[in-house]
Predict the structure.
Amino acid sequence: MPVVCTVVAGNLTDDPLYVPVIVLVQASIGESGKTYFGDCKMASLETRAHLASSHDYYVCPLSGTQVTLPTSTNSSSRCLTARRH
């Protein structure tokens, strides 16, 4: 069940909409230590910094500009091999 629901126009960028909604949830529940799940737009530095400073957690995919993937096949293979062991 959603704690907060916000309806916005489809022509707005999503990034700045997360923090105000998170503030509403934090005010409603009051305790820190909550985990927020979101899409890659929730992974903006501003949103993640707000959650970290509030002692809350987040789970969201990082975009290609936020994380660098290995470009070499050898380094990719080493990463995959390391995870299996």
Residues 18-29 form the longest helix (12 residues). The longest strand covers residues 35-37. Residues 15-84 form one domain.
